[in-house]
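Q: Start with the shorter request: fold the first protein.
A: Done. Sequence, then structure:
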Amino acid sequence: MVIIALLQRAKAKYAWISGHPQTTAGVGGLKPPPPTSGYATASCSESEGNSMSLWTKAQQLQGDALKKVRAVYGEHFPIEVRHFMAAWIEENIMDIDPENPHNEQFVANLVGSLIQELESKANSMMNTDDLFLARLRLIETANNFKSRYSHNPLSLFRIIRHCLKTEMKLVQEVDNVCVNKGIVGPGLGLLPDSNAEIAQQLDFLSRHTQETGGDLRKMEQEQEAFALQYHECTKLNVKCSISDVTTSTAHLQHVQTLPQNQQNLEVETKLRRQKEMFEQMLNQKVSGLMQLRLTLVDKLKDTITHLNTLQSRVLDDELIRWKREQQLQGNGAQFPSNLDNIQECESLAEIIWLNRQQIKEADRLKLKLALDPPGVADMLPSLNSQITQLLSSLVTSTFIIEKQPPQVMKTNTRFTSTVRLLVGGKLNVHMTPPQVKVTIISENQANALLKNDKMAKGDASGEILNNTGTMEYHQATRQLSVSFRNMQLKKIKRAEKKGTESVMDEKFSLLFQSQFSVGGGELVFQVWTLSLPVVVIVHGNQEPHAWATVTWDNAFAEPGRIPFAVPDKVAWQEVANALNMKFKAATGRSLTDDNLRFLGEKAFRAIMGFVRKKQAEEMLSKCANGTFLLRFSDSELGGVTIAWVG
């Protein structure tokens, strides 16, 4: 019932004949769009060497690996662009770090060049039947890129990098399987294990932080030594100035007024030497202290750059991939949750916190002894702002829904959900146990929340019973989480419907809100996260249509979308993948080619469009006896012509 409802939804609103051969439509007995391949188990083949492009290797993947490659592409970055622009993309985009601020303008220029290359590629294509739709697709994509990413080229660049990294990871996984089976080729070793690489970078940052901690202690010791020597200087009645480190003595001035005899000259010489010695010594100390401060600032800047890059990888790659796989689980995809592995990022929180403390300590020492080199700006306030922003981003992004609420939710029915803070243990958030509140909000309210980063007080679209809980820290697993076991949607407030809109098309979301205190109240973070889209029903007969809405959203949601925007048209190949995933989860087997043909015919109604009489005759001449075609007459208004092979 869900599959039929999904197909009806596609026919009514979403179906798009992208790459759909003309010979499949309108002719009884001919095949609908070819089914997607890749349902078999993965196999290994010997690598063809390092010269093989990543895209060539990705196309040779099979089974689930190939499906994962296809799933990462969509309206945000169509697979056709990846195919026709493969060489240009891999040559220009693979090695650029978008998180490096120095690359910002370069990335913007690169995205502009991509759009130009895309247009050039489309214009160079011949208007043949097999390239016509691809050409239109490239032109449409170039226009979409201009309108969607012209003000934010970095977003598109990150999306492309994410797609490439996914391909690299999948290719490497298959290569590793081949190695284990004794098949080794020169193309292996494309991508190191992600978890091992992240652990290696965390170890590097931990050691780097220990080094800066040592530098900070050395600077404090040198500063204390300077203060002692300065104090000794004053005890000898030598007036010392820290700013220019000049000295003079009242005694020396007095001796210079005395008669110039041998004894007085010797005393004056001795005092001058003493003055020069103190002046040289204090100058050296000041110079050394200034150099220590400049070196420490450079090291802290370097650490923050590395932290930013690693955090971006954890949040923008690993965590977003986990969330996408969690969403596809709603359609029946296998979901080997690696959330415990991702939680290792809490070491990142600890390193960020230590560096923030080091910056604050450096600022305290600076205020204690003002030694500002001329012409050098004080970087510590800026570094403090950057490191605090990193911590804020990490805390707010790792407040996640470990167990999603049901996506088709019936009123007055009990449901459960679990939320978790991945970095709670290392930051001792549990010392002030956070309260979590759950409300249900509409699609429009979710959009407003993203724009304003806060909800109006009492602004909700329904009433949920048992909607508050306290997060608890579990020592054995190092997890800070709360499970809501007895929530129930008591009532729902819907928006006004227009035209043929149905309540089963309306999407809501559960909003989880909390407040985290870090460092004994030094920092307080207001956090929230949204569940996957939820469709609310009041009767069982609404369930198939509701699941069709949810299935479409799960299958075709794009990364970083506005809640809960979803493409209103996708290629049949993508719909077939989604249907197959849903069917396999329910029955344990994949849809056959015949199954997909049948479903394709229901989705496309076997309607081709405009066809001339001569073209119809040519199409039928190649078909078996019994094949027929219905065509509106060219000569008689409203007339229908039936042609067949006999």
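Q: Next, the second protein, separately.
A: Sequence, then structure:
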Amino acid sequence: MSSTNNHHIARFISELKTGSLLTKRKSNGDQYSRHFFLDEYEHFISYHQSEKVFAQPNRYYIHKINEIRPGLQTRTFDRLFRHKIVEQEDAADTSGEGVLTPDEFVNLFYVLTRRKDLYAIMQQYVKNGHKQSMDTIRMNIDELLYFLRNIQNQTIIKYQSDECTSDYLLVSVTEREQVQELINEFETDVELQEKGQLSLNGFRNLLLSDEFSVMKPWCSRHIYQDMTRPLSDYYINTSHNTYLFNNQISGTSNPEAYNRVLCSGCRAVEIDCYDGANGRPIVKHGYTLVQPCLFESIIRFIEPNLFKISPYPVILDLENHCSIEQQHEMARILKQVFGDRLITEPLSTNDSSVLPSPEDLKYKVLVRVIEHDLAGLFIYFQNIPFLPNENDKDNYSCCHSPNLSEKHFDRILENDPLDLIKQTGKSVFRMYPHGLRQDSSNPDPINAWNFGIHMVALNFQHDDLMMSLSYGKFIDNGGCGYILKPKYLINAYKINFNPFDYLKKPLMLPDNIIEHPQRLTITIISGQFLSRSNETTQDIPDPYVVVSTHGILCDQQTQKTKFIENNGFDPLWNETFQFNICFPQMCLVRFDVYDYDVFTKDDRIAYFCLPMTTMQTGYRHVHLRTKHNNLTYSTLFIHVTIENN
């Protein structure tokens, strides 16, 4: 081999070791940018560590690589399309070589992803639509205006200036000029834009956009609720044992866990504090194998992210097991790191008989404790036991914040539920999971919310059905972490509202309960790109959809579709379900997609949850989430109607 060739090979190997930024695609549609490189000793290919603290990058050992295929000749693509493209794979291969070029693959992809369900809808609202093919069908301005105004009842956001501001108007689609703007935005064919026409691809782009999805975009993007009420009038997004990444008995206490929950919209985090070496307090899970970390590390680590997602107050729930000396050190750290953002005295403008509002406390940090020397930092949330005796309850102030275990909460509901719900109108209550939940599983938060509990602390590290309810609850109001309660819960002490009175649907609600019972009708039409939940299996999913409503007891219902065999690519259901809802303001609607398995427990592929009051009617896409509420490319296509009962 010549020296020139040796030089080129050496340079090539050096470049491989330096690496390159590539996109790593997973079978569920997720994609990540990763810096791939060849190992220094040339044993394997890997990539630089992700932001996940415990994530371990895969190593692709050189001696285990059987072959390298150029272009798109991989088993992944073959498995993706094997049930869809037998005839179209041949038509797309214009060269006849049995291999697709990138351009041929893109063309094939467009053919495969053309939506027959959307085509059928267009045919209904386009003149002579039944005579048009998928390639030739067009919707003109007037036809699209009719569809958006009469079928979708569409409202769009009109920003007065920058989209990042709250300066916006909600505008109904009523003018041809508005429709032309939408065509210009979503139609990719310039000639059709100029003609004021929308193709099938443009129609798909429009209905897939966030503006036209199942959730009203102003509810997820913007803080629109009244934020000037006392804190006791709100539900607060709350984390339990925030420092944990795994279960309750092993692993490490990790500052990154706090940033993870804060960036998901959580506003109240828990810190279990103990005496550490050299006078430095530590955070750990007592009487377990969980490794500690420094209290100061957590405080300094979370400081840049406190108000990145929401401007409203962050509550530090300090479970204090420290000596007086180390409490002094904790107070010093808090004051030094947070400065004037730390609330250390009552607000001068606040009525002392009620708590301040989230608006009053913008960009502030509150400490929730009762204990010893740290009492100097407690202003508005004194963590006290629940007072079971009637006489003791007169001693409650608005600044008292009772802490209830899951088991204790259940016991109170058995004995005196009405008294509990009345007390939540004055003080902020917190409920946390039972100590026996060593696997970090979560209690159902719905019942606690029904009875007015403000802070239902959940294990964010455990991705279960209960966490998806929490994500659905707090996706509302711009994801700011504070949700205003319905008036019948705010004023429960006046009207004696008791959720147990509504185990069955009432014929009529009392006049003092301001609600509007509604009939929710959902048609599950189809799904798109529903990937396997288990990446190690080569099986194509057999998906089915579970639709459930969660709220006051009489409104809790579950219905499901049949399963579609071997089709996660574009399953078609066209199944309709009705839900009669008495308390829409308290109702969450959850969509769960499962993979049917005759032998084992069905795996949940993806989900989405949202408040019923935020749903748009008409034809809508549901953009599904996966583990820890991460976005996917998977969608459901549904039709929604909401009628007054």
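Q: Describe the second briefly.
A: The chain has five domains: 4-68, 71-112, 114-212, 231-494, 502-644. Confidence is low (pLDDT under 50) at residues 75-83.
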